[in-house]
Design goal:
Two copies of one chain form a homodimer. By secondary structure, chain A is α/β, with parallel strands linked by helices. Chain A is 39% helix and 16% strand. In chain A, the strands form two sheets. A six-stranded parallel beta sheet of chain A has the order 2-1-3-4-5-11, with helices on both faces. A six-stranded mixed beta sheet of chain A has the order 7-6-8-9-10-12. In chain A, strand 1, helix 5 and strand 2 form a beta-alpha-beta unit. The longest helix of chain A has 17 residues. The first copy, chain A, is elongated and about 85 Å long. Chains A and B meet through helix 4, helix 5, strand 2, helix 6 and helix 10 of A and helix 4, helix 5, strand 2 and helix 10 of B. Chain B binds a DNA duplex (16 and 16 nucleotides) through helix 2 and helix 4.
Chain lengths: 344, 344
DNA sequence: CTGAAAGCGCTTACAG
DNA sequence: CTGAAAGCGCTTACAG
């Protein structure tokens, strides 16, 4: 429909090659001012728009990046998607978000599909699998960066940005103890791993370790699982059950702050009063955590930094495929709010 | 790097054309069983993956759809993105979400950029402009569908899915009146329109009309603006200000349920008790509206239906470019929760 | 400083 | 039932 290089070159009495050079700004001292200006003005007046597909075919670069995440309707991933797409856009790349719905199979499929979707690189926000190492099974058709939550594992063969829960979690546990909350119930999001203990999420592991160090009580029986974030009802029910079954508990740590409104409601239903006889803490800051009453104490990761590093690392790797894989660690931070402070 | 049609055809002793036909399933009675199976097995063992770019260049179809929305980190849009991408994926299309950040200029830019990004069609979730008609200024390089919130305007030249607020809003106003809430304060999200009254959002207009019919009091002075959803602090402050300035108010209607946690906090700060001496209602269901205490009464649109219709309408138009533009209306619905019910 | 030409990897009439 | 060939719209050595 619209103009092509050939059309322009015809009108400008030059070759397609020259037009291409000018329009891509690769005309150092190669093209004369006169032809250059002529070409530019003709291109403008013809409303020339390059066909991406032709460029992609000729150059082998798509300028597309696949971003694998659980679920765009979850604001945690939505926020990441937003941050990443922003930074990609600023670097001339387009972001293709791919939802896995937290399903392992679907994630595997996506990874296999992505080459067809033609991307120059892949960012995965979540490794669902044990040590994330299953990624290595999949033929990695493109540079790959992972947001990695697994402390203990070695670096592996690909770069990743590692979320270090230790700092924030240690702060949290110290803070709880200092406020006199000492009997911890856990609301856990089960991992979908057949052969791994379902409680073995890095968050859980770090918590467990820190609680041990600080002498907080948290027997295994006080760890209740709850389904993926979609089903708030389940979090509500599990909160009630946990508090009814183990009335000694005076702190609830919730795997994911998305669920806290339901947990607050459950605590109330169970006859508890947050800030008085029950503390609640969680992970991941979001738009409402400051506004629930009382506000939710959370351990949160520096999402903006992480998004930036994921993108930068990936683009660096695309530009220079031979660089060794890198690992960047980022620290989590505790944000204290009313939910863990003893009401005066 | 990986195999091409030529490689396969060489190994199978056939032509590229035949391979292409087989691999695309377009081999009715054109290709013999034998060659077909040979080709398929060779393709499999060579791990053949078609280059999208080459297909796009040859066919002119990208199977990409641009989705224009304000902000992925807002769960309202995130949820839409999720629904739309799901349905697109099921139809073999990829979804390219493009954030405008609610900026008119950026939206305009995006529309201009999209052809370069090579999309087969465009879905816009929000028309920021007066009557959405400015869309017509922009050269529409591809089939286009709009989620349209503007009741009064005529259909325009392109298809859209129209959100009909009338039903839900009428239900809301009747419900409020029945519960004895009669003095309405509005927290409004200003539109970024230079020459249009900033309060003229379709939601506001429908509300105003319905309140008039049912005789609820809501003078213009009780309409306070609040910034875009990002700044919850501002909603908090405006809630306090509105309630302090006009203590007669006994209902607050909030433009967007994302803001309700801050509004609840503001109401508490202003010495009000939701469900006792103040009702709160809002628009758009989300994950926490059922769980705030009391739960938030909302007017909500059938997001799943709308997403589906947006996609289906667009794909239909892509398949058949000559069909006349269509308008589909969808009804909003009231969900009553504690926030508007008189505590017994 | 500029042009002719090959090539990127497919698809699609067309001819047999 | 199958193949040869043109074409999609660019980019990039290469030769002048």
């Amino acid at each position: 429909m619209s103009a092509t290089l050939k059309d322009i070159s015809a009108k400008a009495n030059t070759s397609e090659a020259t037009v291409s050079l000018v329009l891509n700004g690769r005309h150092y001292n190669r093209v004369s001012q006169a032809t250059r200006q002529k070409i530019e003005s003709i291109a403008r007046e013809m409303g020339y728009v390059p066909r991406r597909a032709a460029q992609v075919l000729a150059t082998g670069k798509t300028h597309n990046i696949g971003v694998i995440l659980n679920d765009l309707s979850n604001p945690f991933y939505g926020h990441y998607a937003s941050l990443i797409q922003q930074r990609l856009w600023d670097n001339g790349y387009t972001c293709l978000p791919m939802e896995t719905g937290a399903s392992r199979d679907r994630q595997r499929n996506l990874l296999a599909w992505l080459p067809q979707k033609s991307v120059d690189g892949i960012i995965a926000l979540e490794g669902l699998w044990d040590g994330d190492d299953d990624y290595l099974d999949v033929p990695l058709a493109a540079p790959f960066i992972l947001r990695h939550q697994n402390q203990g594992k070695p670096t592996g063969e690909y770069s990743h940005v590692s979320v270090d829960y230790e700092h924030g979690v240690t702060q949290l546990v110290a803070h709880l103890k200092e406020q006199g909350w000492d009997k911890v119930g856990l609301l856990i999001q089960p991992q979908q791993l057949p052969h791994v203990d379902e409680l073995e999420h890095p968050r859980t592991r770090m918590l467990h370790q820190a609680m041990h160090v600080h002498g907080l009580r948290c027997p295994d029986k006080w760890w209740y699982p709850a389904e993926e974030s979609k089903s708030m009802e389940h979090w509500y029910q599990q909160t009630i059950a946990l508090l009814k079954d183990h009335p000694q508990i005076n702190v609830l740590i919730v795997h994911n702050a998305i669920a806290t409104p339901a947990v607050y409601a459950g605590a109330e239903k169970a006859g508890r009063c947050v800030g008085q006889d029950l503390a609640i803490a969680s992970f991941d800051e979001n738009s409402f955590t400051p506004w629930l009453r009382p506000g939710v104490t959370v351990v949160h990761e520096p999402m903006q930094d992480i998004a930036q590093q994921l993108v930068d690392l990936l683009l660096e790797q695309i530009k220079n495929p031979n660089t060794a894989s890198k690992v960047i660690k980022t620290k989590t931070q505790l944000i204290v709010r009313g939910s863990t402070q003893r009401a005066r």
